[in-house]
Design goal:
This protein is 0% helix and 48% strand. It is built from no helices and eleven strands. Strands 2, 4, 5, 6, 9, 10 and 11 form a seven-stranded mixed sheet that branches. Strands 1-3-8-7 form a four-stranded antiparallel sheet, with no helix packed on it.
Length: 128
């Protein structure tokens, strides 16, 4: 089983960009579907983007389509979230999650929920 750690969160002005990284340790990163979630205090955690084990299918929440890009490098055991045109509404704790590919279905229009490995989160704050 993998363990994951996020990095790259920061304070950024609206309209700016950030890139989050999620580095996995352990074995079999390429056997996992991966996802980014975010949560604001007092609100339910929401999915931002999911990516299949190969990177061939990527799902985006409507709120981030066209602004965020989710990608992975299986050779480096790393997941990325490139965030452009950031808005204050993007302010949240961002979490990386992993789920076995045999359990988590990811298509370009759907993301399954069976993510079983979670990082500790990385804060992104966007100010206007």
């Amino acid at each position: 089983q993998v363990q994951v750690v996020e990095s790259g969160g920061d304070l950024v002005q609206a309209g700016g960009s950030l890139r989050l990284s999620c580095t996995a340790s352990g074995s079999g990163f390429g056997n996992y579907a991966m996802a980014w979630f975010r949560q604001v205090p007092g609100k339910q955690r929401e999915v931002v983007s999911c990516i299949s084990w190969s990177g061939g299918h990527v799902y985006y929440a409507e709120s981030v389509k066209g602004r965020f890009t989710n990608s992975r490098d299986n050779a480096k055991n790393t997941l990325y979230l490139q965030m452009n045109s950031l808005k204050p509404d993007d302010t949240a704790m961002y979490y990386c999650a992993a789920g076995p590919q045999i359990q988590v279905v990811v298509t370009n229009t759907y993301c399954g929920a069976e993510f079983s490995v979670w990082g500790q989160g990385n804060q992104v704050t966007v100010y206007s």
